[in-house]
Structure prediction request, 305 residues.
Amino acid sequence: MCLIRVFDRKKRIEAEDRAPVHSHEAPDTAREGRMASTKDYVLGTHDEEIERLGLQHRAWRLHAQEAWHSAGIGPGQVVLDVGCGPGYAALDLAEMLGSSGRVVAIDKSERFLRALDATCRERHICNITTHSADLEADEFPTVVADRAWCRWVLAFVKNPRTILARIAAALAPNSVMVLHEYFDYSTWRAAPRCPELEEFVSVVMASWRDSGGEPDIGLCLPLWLEELGFEIRAARPIIDIVSPDHPSWTWLATFVQVGRSRLIEMGYVSPSRAESMWQAFINFQATAGARMITPGVLEIIAARR
Ligand SMILES: C[S@@+](CC[C@H](N)C(=O)[O-])C[C@H]1O[C@@H](n2cnc3c(N)ncnc32)[C@H](O)[C@@H]1O
Prediction:
């Protein structure tokens, strides 16, 4: 791995805070929108990331809906979407809950919340409330929820157990928490092997860890939930093996494409190393019979005792 120094971080932070959502501005300004911010997290909150999260949600929608059904999510309930991002799951949940139910969508990224608010206005959706909060530092909204949904958030925070306890405190008795977090990110492999993809995956994991997160946080969750008074109703690994025509392939390929720019910006790889990784991935993708194994997600459905 070739490391280059992260430079001028303060300037980057100021740039992101000024950047518009869905920018159609000149290339320099659009580039500023890809920079890191205090309201940002390791993967960024730029427009490309908003689109990527949409693609990711579409690839994972069936898994999510299956989990929501198992957790008994239905009309009239109040559901917390913790670390909602631009709200793709929140929008689906709002439809399931109907007009008598409500999604309370929490995130620290103003850009993501603005994107969700804009979608709600466009589609005349009235049963989603957005709440801007840093889960580690700010107050949770005062709400007593029936269900909580949290996907790919605890891997990116410094105090995941504290956040889990805060989610628990916002839940009513007999409520249910549904979690999708990675338990083994390194299962993301190419068949036949592609060493550059393995290198990309390990650099991504290092960047999350350096930001205070833990990619394989799923491994900690069953014990923490039991300590917090939850009963694990179901826990299952989700790992798929997919070919290039599968939506999960597009999800992962896009992550390599968008993620390599992010790794350059953050100083983890040089532009030429990132280009070599991308070219190797393109070649692998064109290989007859190519398959990818997806990063291992742990689904947990836990009920409050
Ligand atoms: C990978 S995205 C997942 C978004 C969404 N849960 C989904 O499944 O599409 C991670 C989200 O966690 C949010 N996040 C990370 N750390 C946070 C914190 N400390 N407080 C609030 N939100 C946080 C990010 O802003 C981002 O929206």
